[in-house]
Amino acid sequence: MNSFEGKLDSFSSANSANSASSISGTGISGTGEAKHAKAATEAGADGAVFKDLAQIVQEIGGISAENVSPESRFSEDLAISSLNLIELIVNVEDNFGVRIEDSDAQHFKTVQDVTDFIQAHRAS
Fold it and tell me: So which domain of life are we looking at (predicted)?
């Protein structure tokens, strides 16, 4: 089994409980842009990581970067499929120079989870 297949199996298992839930909206508030700008400013270096990560989410999921918040959940709020989440992880690895193991990726539920991982594991 290659790394991609392992990640797909991991996400399929981790998200099986989520697949039964329906998406009843995007979970995005109308004041998203101001909220995200404030969060990015308060976060300092995390803000730059968050901004870049939101751009990756936009490219993969078709969600406007302004509508992505740190609290956004990949499956429920952003409608990111398990396959798209794998694509997102590969892009994160390439763009931020981190290696994400399957065991780590299983814990990624929100954008903030990935931001925290990047901050903790990025080469100085």
Answer: Bacteria
State whether the Cα torsion 53-57-42-117 is positive or negative. Answer: negative
N- to C-terminal Cα distance for the chain?
32
pLDDT band at 35 (very low <50, low <70, confident <90, very high): very low
- Alpha carbons 7 and 11: distance in angstroms, whole number: 6
CA dist., res. 119 & res. 10, Å (int): 23
CA-nearest of 48, 62, 43 to 122 is 48
How would you classify residue 36: left for phi > 0, otherwise alpha for psi between -120 and 50, otherwise beta? alpha
For the record, the structure tokens of 18 come out as: 């989520």
Q: Residue ranges of the domains in the chain? A: 3-14+32-121
Q: Is the pLDDT of residue 37 over 50?
A: no
Query: Is CATH 1.10.3720.10 what the domain over 3-14+32-121 is classified as, yes or no?
Result: no
**pLDDT at 28 exceeding the cut of 80:** no
